[in-house]
């Protein structure tokens, strides 16, 4: 067994490992402050009612992941701006949709008036790259 396998065996192991790292700021601190401290009326943190979550990366590791903002931006861009451009560029195009597969691949689906759908794997490092990949296929 490697060290990586040992510390990623389960959430508790990884949480223990992260908790022992000598860091001043960590993502689980930020999340804790956003969720619990923002509306707290306590005078000090010595008697925190959420102590079980404080400095606890295991709690943070179990949080559900929200869709990252850049993904929302890509989706909005493709389904609005890029779609409008494609409709003007090709009278057969009826719209475009941005999707991410379960394995993380990013695609644009082009919908055509005849019912045909074209699936295009895109380079998703920028909106320009997505546009370039789609226009190459059109």
What is the quaternary state of this protein? single chain
Mean pLDDT: 85
Shape: elongated
How would you sum up the major sheet? 3 strands, antiparallel
> What's the β-strand tally?
3
SSE sequence, one letter per element: HHHHHEEEH
Task: Provide tags for this entry.
138 residues; three-stranded antiparallel β-sheet; 14% strand; single chain; 6 helices; elongated; alpha+beta; 45% helix
Write the layout of secondary structure elements.
Layout: H1 3-7, H2 11-19, H3 27-37, H4 57-61, H5 69-89, E1 93-100, E2 106-112, E3 117-121, H6 127-137
Helix pairs in contact: 5-6
Briefly summarize what is shown.
It contains six helices and three strands; from the N terminus they run αααααβββα. The chain has 138 residues and is an alpha+beta fold.
Structure, described:
The chain has 138 residues and is α+β, with helices and mostly antiparallel strands. The chain has 2 domains: 3-61, no CATH class; 69-137, no CATH class. 45% of the residues lie in helices and 14% in strands. A 3-stranded antiparallel β-sheet has the order 1-2-3. α5 (69-89) packs parallel to α6 (127-137). The protein is elongated, with a radius of gyration of 22 Å.
């Amino acid at each position: 067994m490697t060290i990586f396998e040992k510390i990623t065996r389960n959430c508790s192991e990884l949480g223990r490992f992260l908790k022992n790292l000598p860091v001043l700021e960590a993502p689980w601190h930020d999340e804790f402050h956003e969720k619990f401290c923002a509306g707290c009326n306590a005078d000090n943190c010595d008697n925190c009612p959420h102590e079980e979550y404080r400095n606890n990366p295991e709690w943070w590791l179990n949080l559900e992941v929200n869709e990252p903002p850049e993904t929302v931006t890509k989706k909005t861009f493709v389904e609005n701006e890029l779609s409008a451009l494609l409709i003007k560029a090709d009278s057969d195009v009826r719209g475009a949709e941005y999707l991410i597969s379960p394995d993380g691949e990013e695609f644009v689906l082009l919908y055509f008036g005849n019912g045909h759908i074209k699936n295009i794997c895109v380079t998703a490092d920028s909106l320009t790259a997505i546009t370039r990949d789609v226009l190459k296929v059109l």
